[in-house]
Specification:
heterodimer; A: 371 residues; mainly alpha; 2 strands; globular; B: mainly alpha; two-stranded antiparallel sheet; 72% helix; membrane (chain A); LivM-like (chain A); Branched-chain amino acid transport system permease protein (chain A); transmembrane (chain A); transmembrane helix (chain A)
Chain lengths: 371, 292
């Protein structure tokens, strides 16, 4: 749906209400351009997956899984102005759905390479359903009220896995059986590379759809609603419907991200999807640059790189074991917190905002130099 | 019937704490139009300081006073060092900054104290008196009621009867005019933050001995419950916050008593959603026109 609506070239720019980053008018089809970018990124990813060691492959796959969720969140919060602290809970929905599906398949002895696709699709569908319920409530709420409700969702949903531990197995969580890579790829094909391929393919597909959605009519209505609800309604936009749509799209990607995380870790437990995860996702999109898909990439990279970095920092210091463990567990949180506050105060555009400003300044200097 | 009486009294005592915490949220909302999502983390930080002081000196009451002082100071610092510089044009910004503070404070607490539960002592016995074979309040419950009542009355007196309270209300109601009339609007804002954070610290000191103990995340669910309480009463109404706190306390007590304590988080979420969808301004708000 989103892809076809974006396939028409952006000839008439809606003026007035949209007000988003329209930029200079570009030639050619948006869909083709995005397809080209995705194809290049996919080829790069395959190349990289052969070039680096298995552990890096796994980390890249985790980045891809997080990227799914951050991209969806940045569309919701950055482009439609709805703050969600509940995306960790939506990821949990996706993750648990995948776990339940895979377990159901394996208990019945059904095997096959395409089953994972079915499970992932089921995860997206389940999260869409949950997202629609939350989204309908969210569309009626503004500012701090919305934040409070989604915060409650983030705190409550992981607790539900303990309440209904007959299905979700409480704090222990569930294991997620996943097929080994197909034999056609060779007997010695590393499992981590296969994980990266799965996660990368799913994420690129999600990003392609999101990128087209953002540049489509729907993307413009998202921004119009964010900027001025009254003006948007006067322009004939159904405000509540637009907000629910944005929430559902964002929930779908969050569910996919959570499902991918579960497939990568081959297990799910409520501890991994607590309030901290929801806050981390929000931090990631704000620090990366709210409302930009490239910012979501920066954020997802940070989510994986920072704990790794703090691990190597604490290894450098000679500390007693208990103190080192405390420091290592909490250093990423502290860095995230400080960075978030500083970014909000000093550079609200985030990393991507700084980069594009820097790039524009360079371009201007180059033009001045030439003339 | 015995059980119902016990649950009611227990719920009221729990609700008193939620009322205090909700009152802290309402104070900041009225002063600065910000819901302080970092309130829980700030209160836990104050409680940890009290824990350190109490275990160093052996005096609970010294720790209690230090907790209140830390709360006041922390509120003032957060306003002066951070919140003042936040761009308030979008309501998202202060919320995001507050969440950054949550991460930061919880991380610092985790680094210093580790993330295991530490037992928090109560100054009075938590065993209930029995009246005619009926288990009723414990001395600690009476202490909770007394402390919250003192705070509520003190705040009411400050805002209604003193010059400082009048200035604070004026600064929140019409900042520009108040500034022209010689009110130190920024100072009043800082004072509001300090007061609210002090009340939050008191609530944390009261609630933590009744729960699992001190932990960097100890106030997460309490914050959600108190936010619900504030919304039930209407974010703009201090008496509403008190009533809302008692309502939420009673509800949680009944749910955990009759249906199982696992369901209390879900009950909070359902109540919050129900109130927001049916009466978004809270039970005590005047009917007002809403944009769009």
């Amino acid at each position: 749906m989103s892809a076809t609506s974006a396939a028409t070239p952006p000839r008439e720019r809606t003026t007035g209400v949209a007000g988003g980053p329209g930029g200079p008018r570009r030639r050619g089809s948006t869909l083709l351009r995005h397809l080209a970018v995705v194809a290049v990124a996919g080829l790069l990813l395959v190349g990289v997956s052969y070039a680096v060691e298995p552990f890096r492959n796994f980390q890249l796959a985790t980045v891809a899984a997080y990227l799914c969720a951050t991209a969806g969140l940045t569309v919701l919060t950055g482009l439609n102005g709805q703050l969600s602290l509940g995306h960790g809970a939506l990821m949990a929905t996706g993750a648990y759905t995948v776990a339940l599906c895979q377990n159901a398949f394996y208990d019945r002895g059904v095997t096959g390479g395409l089953l994972l696709l079915v499970s992932l699709a089921a995860a997206v569908v389940a999260t869409v359903a949950v997202g629609a319920v939350v989204g309908v409530a969210a569309a009626r709420l503004r500012g701090p009220y919305l934040a409070g409700v989604t915060l409650a969702v983030a705190v409550v949903v992981p607790a539900l896995t303990v309440t209904f531990d007959g299905v979700f197995n409480g704090e222990q969580g569930l294991s997620v059986p996943v097929e080994p890579p197909p034999l056609a790829l060779g007997v010695y094909f590393p499992y981590e590379r296969w994980q990266l391929w799965i996660a990368g393919a799913a994420t690129l597909l999600a990003l392609l759809l999101l990128a087209n959605l953002v540049r489509s009519r729907y993307g413009r209505t998202f921004r119009a609603v964010r900027d001025d609800e009254v003006a948007a309604r006067l322009a004939g936009i159904h405000v509540a419907r637009t907000q629910v749509l944005a929430f559902v799209v964002s929930a779908a990607t969050a569910g996919l991200g959570g499902a991918l995380l579960a497939v990568l870790a081959q297990s799910v437990s409520p501890g991994a999807f607590g309030l901290t995860l929801s806050l981390f996702l929000l931090m990631a999109v704000v620090i990366g640059g709210l409302g930009r898909l490239t910012g979501a990439v920066w954020g997802a990279v940070m989510l994986v790189a920072l704990p790794d970095l703090s691990h190597s920092v604490t290894e450098q210091l000679t500390l007693p074991a208990a103190a080192a463990q405390r420091l290592e567990g909490n250093l990423p949180l502290a860095i995230f917190g400080i960075t978030l506050v500083v970014v909000m105060l000093a550079a609200p555009g985030g990393v991507q905002g700084l980069l594009s400003r820097f790039g524009r300044a360079l371009l201007a200097r180059w033009r001045v130099g030439r003339s | 019937m015995d059980r119902f009486v016990f649950l009611t009294l227990d719920g009221l005592s729990r609700g008193a704490v939620y009322a205090a915490f909700a009152l802290a949220l309402v104070l900041i909302w009225r002063a600065a139009r910000v819901v302080n999502f970092a309130q829980g983390a700030m209160a836990v930080a104050a409680a940890y300081v009290a824990y350190s002081v109490a275990s160093a000196t052996g005096s609970y009451w010294l720790g209690f006073v230090v907790a209140l002082a830390t709360g006041l100071l922390l509120g003032a610092i957060v306003d002066r060092a951070v919140m003042r510089y936040v761009d308030h044009t979008s309501p998202l910004n202060p919320v995001i900054v507050a969440l950054g503070l949550v991460l930061l404070i919880q991380a610092v607490l985790g680094m210093i104290y580790g993330s295991e539960f530490r037992p928090a002592e109560a100054p009075f016995s938590r065993g209930a008196f029995t009246v005619g074979g009926l288990a009723v309040l414990s001395p600690y419950d009476l202490f909770v009621f007394g402390a919250v009542a003192v705070v509520v009355c003190a705040l009411a007196w400050i805002f209604a009867r003193t010059a400082v309270g009048l200035r604070m209300r004026a600064a929140a109601f019409a900042p520009e005019v108040s500034r022209l009339l010689g009110v130190n609007v920024g100072g009043m804002l800082t004072l509001g933050w300090a007061l609210a954070s002090g009340v939050g610290a008191l609530a944390a000191m009261l609630v933590i001995p009744t729960e699992l103990g001190l932990h960097p995340h100890a106030m997460d669910l309490v914050f959600v419950s108190a936010f619900t309480a504030a919304v039930v009463g209407g974010l703009d109404s201090p008496p509403g916050a008190v009533v809302g706190g008692l309502v939420v306390g009673l509800l949680l007590s009944y749910v955990s008593g009759y249906a199982g304590s696992d369901l209390t988080p879900l009950a909070v979420l359902v109540l919050l959603l129900a109130v927001l969808l049916v009466r978004p301004g809270g039970l005590f708000a005047p009917v007002a026109a809403r944009r769009v």
